[in-house]
Specification:
This protein is mainly α and 205 residues long. It contains 10 helices and 2 strands; from the N terminus they run H-E-H-H-H-H-E-H-H-H-H-H.
C-alpha cells in the first residue's frame, strides 16, 4: 500500500481535479486505514507550524465525531453529510499539502509496525479515541494557543494509528497531554485575568 504522502500528492497534484473537492471524494484513498487517515488529514491544517485559519472549528467537530465512533468500536466512520460534502477549494488544499507533505514524509521515514496492540486493541483504541476527542474540543476553542499543539497531538496519534505504529501513537498521546495542559492553563489564566479585571473595574466605578 502506497504511503499517505504519495497518495495525497498523486490525488491532489498529479491527477485532474475540479476546482472544489470535499472529504467524501477522497475517502477511497484510506482503504482499511480510514480512521487514522481521517485523523491525519483533518488535523493537518491546524497542526502545521503556520496553521491555516478557518479549519479548526469545522474539522474539530469532525474529529470529535470520529473519535467518539472509535471509542464505541465502530469499524467504519460515519460523517455528517453536510460536513462531508462541504466544498473546499482545491487551491487551498494544495497550499496546505505543499507545507504538510514534507512533514508527512519525515514521519513516514521512521514509521513501521511496532507495539501494534496500542493501535489495534480495544483498550488502546478507547484511550486514543478519548484523547483525540479532548484535543478536538480544544481545537474548537476560538482562543490563540489552544489549537496548534492539540492538533499536532491528533496528527501524530492518528499517523501511528494509520501505520499500526504504537510507538508513534504513544508519542502523539504525550503531545495530547501537553496540549491539554497548555489549553487548560490558557483558559484558567483567562478566567482569573478576566475576574481580576472585572473586580478592578467594579472598584473604579
Amino acid at each position: 500500500m502506497a504511503r499517505l504522502s504519495v497518495e495525497l500528492h498523486r490525488y491532489f497534484f498529479e491527477e485532474e481535479r475540479p476546482s472544489q473537492v470535499n472529504l467524501s471524494q477522497i475517502l477511497a484513498l484510506a482503504g482499511e486505514r480510514i480512521f487514522g487517515f481521517l485523523f491525519v488529514v483533518l488535523s493537518l491544517p491546524s497542526a502545521l507550524p503556520l496553521p491555516a485559519p478557518g479549519y479548526s472549528v469545522p474539522f474539530g467537530i469532525l474529529l470529535f465525531v470520529l473519535a467518539v465512533q472509535l471509542v464505541v468500536g465502530a469499524k467504519s466512520p460515519w460523517l455528517p453529510p453536510r460536513l462531508a460534502n462541504y466544498p473546499i477549494a482545491l487551491k487551498q488544499i494544495q497550499g496546505i499539502l505543499k507545507t504538510g507533505i514534507p512533514w508527512l514524509k519525515r514521519i513516514e521515514a521512521i514509521a513501521r509496525p511496532r507495539l501494534s496492540y496500542v493501535c489495534t486493541s480495544l483498550t488502546g483504541r478507547v484511550v486514543i479515541g478519548c484523547a483525540i476527542a479532548l484535543m478536538a474540543i480544544s481545537m474548537m476553542i476560538p482562543i490563540p494557543g489552544t489549537n496548534t499543539l492539540p492538533a499536532m497531538g491528533i496528527f501524530v496519534t492518528g499517523f501511528g494509528l494509520l501505520e499500526d505504529d504504537g510507538a508513534i501513537s504513544l508519542l502523539g498521546l504525550v503531545l495530547c497531554l501537553l496540549g491539554a495542559v497548555l489549553s487548560t492553563s490558557i483558559l484558567v489564566a483567562l478566567y482569573f485575568g478576566g475576574t481580576s479585571l472585572i473586580d478592578w473595574l467594579r472598584a473604579q466605578f
